[in-house]
Amino acid sequence: MSWFKETFGSSIGRKFAMALSALFLIIFLLQHLIINLTSVFSEETFNSLSHFMGTNPVVQFALQPVLIIGVIFHFVMGFILEIRNKNAREVKYAKNEGGANSSWMSRNMIWSGLFILFFLGFHFADFWIPEIIHKYIEVHPDDPNRYYAETVHMFENPIRVGIYTLSFVFLALHLKHGFQSAFQSMGARHSKYTPMIKKIGDAYSIVVPALYIFIAVYHHFTQAI
Amino acid sequence: MSTANGLNLTLKVWRQKNNKDKGKLESYQVTDISPDSSFLEMMDILNEQLIDEGQDPVAFDHDCREGICGTCSMYINGEAHGPGRGITTCQLHMREFKNGDTIYIEPWRAKAFPVLKDLVVDRSGFDRIMAAGGFISVNTSGNTQDANNIPIPKLEADKAFDAATCIGCGACVASCKNASAMLFVSAKVSQFALLPQGRPEAAERVQNMVKQMDEEGFGNCSNTGACEVECPKGISLENIARMNREYLSASFKAEEA
Amino acid sequence: MSVLDSKIPEGPIKDKWTNHKNNIKLVNPANKRQIDVIVVGTGLAGGSACATLAELGYNVKAFCYQDSPRRAHSIAAQGGINAAKNYQGDGDSTYRLFYDTVKGGDYRSREANVYRLAEVSTNIIDQCVAQGVPFARDYGGLLDNRSFGGVQVSRTFYAKGQTGQQLLLGCYSAMSRQIGKGKIKMYNRHEMVDIVKIDGKARGIIARNLITGEIERHSAHAVVIASGGYGNVFFLSTNAMGSNVSASWKIHKKGAFFANPCFTQIHPTCIPQHGDQQSKLTLMSESLRNDGRIWVPAKKEDAEAIRAGKLKPTDIAEADRDYYLERRYPSFGNLVPRDVASRAAKERSDAGYGVGTNESGEAVYLDFSSAIMRYGQEQANIHGVYDANDAKIRELGEAVVEEKYGNLFQMYEKITADNPYKTPMKIYPAVHYTMGGVWVDYNLMTTIEGCYAIGEANFSDHGANRLGASALMQGLADGYFVLPYTIGDYLADDIRTGAIPTDSPEFDEAEKAVKDQIDFFINNKGSKSVDHFHKRLGKVMWNKVGMARNATGLKEAIEEIKQIRAEFWKDVKVPGTADSMNPELEKAGRVADFLELGELFARDALLREESCGGHFREEHSTAEGEALRDDINFTYAAAWEFKGEPSEAEVHKEGLTYENIELKTRSYK
User: Fold this and answer.
1) C269-431 has CATH 3.90.960.10 classification
2) Which domain holds residue B131?
3) Which of B117, B142, B169 is the last residue of a domain?
4) Would you call B244 and A87 a contact, using CB atoms and an 8 Å cutoff?
């Protein structure tokens, strides 16, 4: 297995791993969004989907750990690469015009990423940990209809909606560069398909975060008065 | 004796005695520079001035002064080879600047390109990457097969040529926020990967070159595309994708020897 | 009987090289490992020689002053490389390439060498393709060719306008492979500052590490000089800033004869000088003359008005333009060889018709407007646009011209800020290539035993004028296919010598001389920079030893150069220290050598009482100003032996015999 270590220890191998985890997270984001979106249309569907996700053992004990590992891997690898990359230039330029040759998004993946990490921390503390406590520590009886009301209630607080919105703006910036970058890192580039991938990436990076924000804002303003 | 359109400029030039010195930016004034002068001619004038004043002239790398040897290497006003696209520093002309401008002139910055003196850096890491695999193993016996025995589709040949126009100046490394050398390495990997003559060694080549690149201490590519924009020869990011592909396929597909 | 033995093998010309290879001594592979070879310079000749010698098994030590072997100035060659492949089926052959090269060289080259060059030319293309050089191809995937000045076949292989670059990178790749294997030890940023001779044989060099300033001793069983030409003696040339004569000159001073220094090629299509602070000139490929028409105003007052900025070239009516090449040479027109085109431009500028903005008004126009309109009309017809107006035709034509010369036009615009699609280019001749160089025999050995000279550094193949696309061919032929064989003949006697020690008195002495000179420069504390002297030398060379020469001017030049040299040694100022990176110190050493070469150059031009190729003596011309060659008295190569001072150098003549080609007068009328 020395080849395996060598491959994933190399610069290109690390980028490949980064890209793979990114694509996994991109798919996860979409799945998460679809479930959330149902909350706008149908309380019933949302509840049943949430109930399934929250109680299905495959989701809970197989997919959920994979997701957590994927998230952690993406962040840790991101930090490792950032540190290595910073070290590759010990003395900085006195004057540097990064904007002349590259986009802000591409140069600041670490900052948009950190903001998203901050949000995930918040999301964990705010949602995931209470949920785990609710299910596995306090062991409340199962109520398949609690999800919708709880979710809507979450968006009552304008500060939470604000954090939520801002975080998804950063996610959009992260995706704007990250989506097509993942394909480039894996070597997937072709004169016919790459322009299409770039367009899909641009659309994804705007539409997906925008819909997340929409859901939050929608529930905030349609609270039962 | 200032002429009508001569430029008076303030230069902030990186001065560093040798590899061990810490170095700092120094300010100099130059006057009445012709807008038709090249940037390096302006540096010549500065040096004449410094020699006259009994100071040490600024050391900078330069040779062909027509944009092909890849020797010149200055980071001017925050960009490799200065403002303007598709040019090296020696092709930059003073008409790009305005009277009264302040110009920052720094060496390429990368751990893998240590400063030797002033604006001169050591790019021998590129040579070592080349020695690790930047070749096709064919002896110069003169007994190779006829040059026209293997037709090569024009599109592939043209792409190989485009990759091969890299001048090895290091602007990609200098511009990259990560000081990554992937554009340079990928250009050579691509040139040979695209040609039938280069295929037999393609897997080994890309692995050896990437390994050496990593050992030299260059950073990792994060696809900002700055290298492609600043590259005097317009080497495409397509080459980096091809190198990634070649590398991954070599790593996962090739049998272990 | 001359002291020069060219060692040309016996037999018919087409068998000479084969017979020679069959008869020379070989070194067996085990013994090659015991033998060291030093190669100075890593351009096409040096780089290819390093690669092949290392493949054969010799231990190679390669030196270049640049930071990497890939930067040698061969990289700047634009046009292409000739080879007698006859892929186009247009009747090309080894003999034709040989014939064209000898004729193009105005019958002052050595037949046997040129024939060998033509013979191995085809191997070069095979070799380069095998090592991944991306030559231009046609849509069928086969190699494409183009035609170049002065010949009637298409035999030039090319890679857009960057053929030299691609070939050099091919060499560099081949070198890199051997560097990786440890067969070549590469010394980047090292300059050879002297050669070391032991018992009359070249046994090593003294080199300066340009980073640390350290003086190093390197020994070997043979030394190969591949350091290029000496065009920078003119200060302004198309050479790289660092190109210099020092390696050749050091061996000249230790016994290598220097041949035909006055044979210098002045290329007609360069971007004119813009002012006194210019450091170098840029070539625009000769291929532009295929479509550009060269002219100056027919009326002096128009030329004056243009120089004063009162008129633009587009203001001059067609009838008031003098297309002087078409007028003087109706059959070849704008496509006359380089030397002829250059002289004609100078003649017009000197007569007051030049259009340059510098003080002497040196420039002529290279105008693409007729080509643009002609191509435009053709395109309009092809696309069935029958009612096209002039603007439309111009637009279509510009697209065609862009396709053909886009990168050159862009380069021109970057340098001059003029758009050559709208206004004619300004061009003027500039020093480009030196056909003269170190004298070598058929084996490429100089008159120092064990010291070889290859590529532009030697003198043999181009005679008095080099044809386009032949320099790359010669460099690679010497390095890949000639020297590696011939050097074995010499080294075969050295298999028992063992490593050459570097602690001998000869090394001590050479090192001391080098250190003394460096100390002199550092401690001289004069008042003028090295460039000051170099520019003065360049002016004298250009004005009196340039495109047109006469006895009076040459004699003046000799005296003036002596004067500049004396002042240089009295008053040169070199800042900095000897033990650090010091570009001014490097330049000082090089200019010191140029100041000696310049004088020998002028003496050689004075001796050659004829006009041939790039050498034009005003006294030896026809009433119409055409060159007059003197085959009875000057069919020889003048090889100069150093005797302490350039003024005392003694000339030896190698008679040139033409058994396979009849001497004819070149005519382009």
Assistant:
1) no
2) 123-253
3) B117
4) no
Q: What is the pLDDT of residues C554-603, one digit of tens each?
A: 999 999 999 999 999 999 999 999 999 999 999 999 999 999 999 999 99
Residues A206-220, mean pLDDT to the nearest whole number: 96
In chain C, count of helices (H) and strands (E)?
A: 19, 19
Predicted local distance difference test score (pLDDT) of residue A139: 84
**What is the CATH number for B243?**
1.10.1060.10
All residues of chain C having their beta carbon less than 8 Å from the beta carbon of residue B67 are 411
| DSSP bridge partners of C529 | none
Residue A1 binned pLDDT confidence (cut-offs 50, 70, 90): low
pLDDT grade, residue A225 (50/70/90)?
Answer: low
Closest residue, chain B, to C120 (C-alpha): B142
Q: Which residue of chain B has the CA closest to A106?
A: B224
Going across the sheet that includes C215-219, the strands are C190-198, C201-209, C215-219
* Bridge pairing between strands C321-322 and C293-297: antiparallel
pLDDT in tens, B168-215: 999 999 999 999 999 999 999 999 999 999 999 999 999 999 999 999
- B129 and B247 both lie in a single domain: yes
**pTM value?**
0.95
The pair phi, psi for residue C198, each rounded to 5°, is -125, 125
Is B124 within 8 Å of C138 when comparing Cβ atoms?
Answer: no
Ordered by where they begin, the domains of chain A are 2-86+103-221 (1.20.1300.10)
- Domain for residue B1, yes or no? no
Instruction: Please tell me the distance in Å from C131's CA to the nearest CA on chain B.
Output: 5
User: Is the pLDDT assigned to residue A200 strictly greater than 60?
Assistant: yes
User: What does the alpha-carbon distance between residue C216 and residue C515 come to, in Å, rounded to a whole number?
Assistant: 11
Interface check C190 vs B, CB under 8 A: no
Contact predicate C585/C633, CB 8 Å: no
A95 with B226: Cβ contact below 8 A: no
C211 touches chain B (CB under 8 A): yes
Question: Of B74, B98, B117, which residue constitutes the final position of a domain?
Answer: B117
Tell me the backbone φ, ψ of residue C131, rounded to 5 degrees.
-95, 15
Chains touching B, CB cut-off 8 Å, 3+ pairs: A, C
Note whether B185 and B205 are same-domain residues: yes
As a whole number, mean pLDDT of residues A151-176 equals 94
DSSP string, C144-183: P-B--TT-SS--EE-BTB-HHHHHHHHHHHHHHHHHHHTS
Q: Are B153 and B37 found together in one domain?
A: no
C523, containing H or E segment: helix C505-524
pLDDT attached to residue C593: 98
Asked if residues C323 and C294 have their Cβ atoms less than 8 Å apart, the reply is yes
- Whether residue A198 lies within 8 A of chain B, CB to CB, comes out as no
Res C74: pLDDT: 97
**Does any CB of chain B come closer than 8 Å to the CB of residue C130?**
yes
Active site residue C338: yes
Contact C247, C45 (CB under 8 A): no
Nearest to B51 among C85, C129, C529 (CB): C529
The residue from C116, C338, C590, C666 that is catalytic is C338
Give C90-139 pLDDT, tens digit per residue: 999 999 999 999 998 999 999 999 999 999 999 999 999 999 999 999 98
Distance CA C268, CA C339 (A): 7
Q: Which residue of A has its CA nearest to B206?
A: A12
Based on the fold, state whether residues B41 and B142 are members of the same structural domain.
no
In chain A, the residue whose alpha carbon lies closest to the alpha carbon of B217 is A88
- B129 and B232 housed in the same domain: yes
- What pLDDT digit, counting tens, does each position of C427-458 carry? 999 999 999 999 999 999 999 999 999 999 99
Q: What's the rounded mean pLDDT across residues A164-172? A: 96
- Looking at chain C, the domain(s) classified CATH 1.20.58.100 span 505-630
pLDDT band at C405 (very low <50, low <70, confident <90, very high): confident
CB contacts, 8 Å: B226 with chain A: 98, 101-102
* Chains B and A make contact, 3+ CB pairs within 8 Å: yes
| pLDDT at residue C144, as a whole number | 92
Query: The domain C505-630: what is its CATH number?
Result: 1.20.58.100
